[in-house]
Amino acid sequence: MLTSDGATQTDHAAAVMDAFELFRKLGAGAKFDLKRFGQDAARFKVARSHVVEESSNVLSAIDYFGTGVTSKSQSSPVELDKDDGGDEEEEEEEEEGSESGDSGAGGKRKQRDEDLSKEKKRPKSDQVEAADGPLKDTERSGITWTSSLDRKIQNLPGDGKEKSSLKRMKQLHQEKVNRIRSRHRINVHGCDVPDPVSTFEELQSEYRLSPRVLQTLKDAGLTSPTPVQMQAIPLMMHGRELLACAPTGSGKTLAFCLPLLAQLQQPANLGFRAVVISPTRELANQIYSSVLQTDWCSSSSRILQPST
Ligand SMILES: Nc1ncnc2c1ncn2[C@@H]1O[C@H](COP(=O)(O)OP(=O)(O)OP(=O)(O)O)[C@@H](O)[C@H]1O
């Protein structure tokens, strides 16, 4: 860097390039009013079309088939404001199998959106499989698609009319779910979060929770789930990973113990089948007494202490 002027200039140019690149990346999620700030967008290369044009120039200069004809002369002009288009435009592009969405920051975002919507669409055929073997689906996509209403819509053989009325139903259902969540101050982050349950009985109808477990809950005086249980239990019944945060005494222990014990079903002489790790002995004791409260498998629960 200090050896010659040429090297210093090169470094300076590289630093300026880096700054431009950094700015472009930082602005990746932002939406610019390209009509109003067109000049600025062009200067900082945030306009996707510019990047697309650049890369397509490079690619189009290649004579892939050795015919002497490059695709440069054939390529159609790139639209400037694709990102500003509405959902319909995006859907159309998806149907056409767009090839232009893979360059530039906006392109990456769009590509991600497309991937996501394709992922969502894929279970249309996988839903039946999901009902038969949810683990296989999880292994493949990392997510088990959970919404039962989605499954109904996707499996429906009927015409577009029926599907659109079901879509409307789904929308109403989502509004209802949102109301429940906001009433109980449940905030969720993540993909395809299953609906919260308002009663323990719903766990029986939706997740085939054993009637014996329900009876045990009733006997223990637990009549309805607490907010953290309303959302955490369905998630865990789907075998999803969960990070829950709720005030002390809000029923977090049962929120993870119930699905865990429900999945174990009944005591079996198979060694350790589930491990709950807690940071303190006191908390381990608290969890243990909660498990004892749900006494359908208390006899097989143990507290293990680390050897020091
Ligand atoms: N659905 C419910 N209805 C009524 N009581 C409940 C319900 N769920 C749990 N409880 C009771 O609430 C009390 C506190 O629950 P719990 O210890 O699970 O809270 P926690 O959120 O885990 O607390 P901490 O943050 O201190 O660990 C327990 O006595 C438990 O039996």
UniProtKB/TrEMBL annotation:
Gene responsible for this protein: Ddx52
Domain Helicase ATP-binding: 233-308
Xref: SUPFAM superfamilies: P-loop containing nucleoside triphosphate hydrolases (SSF52540)
Motif position, Q motif: 202-230
Skewed-composition ranges (Basic and acidic residues): 149-165
Biased composition regions of type Polar residues, renumbered to the chain: 68-77
Residue stretches making up the DEAD-box RNA helicase Q domain: 202-230
Organism: Liparis tanakae
Gene3D superfamilies to which the protein is assigned, alphabetical: P-loop containing nucleotide triphosphate hydrolases
The protein's name: ATP-dependent RNA helicase
A Pfam family recorded for this sequence: DEAD
Function: RNA helicase.
Reactions catalysed, as given in the entry: ATP + H2O = ADP + phosphate + H(+)
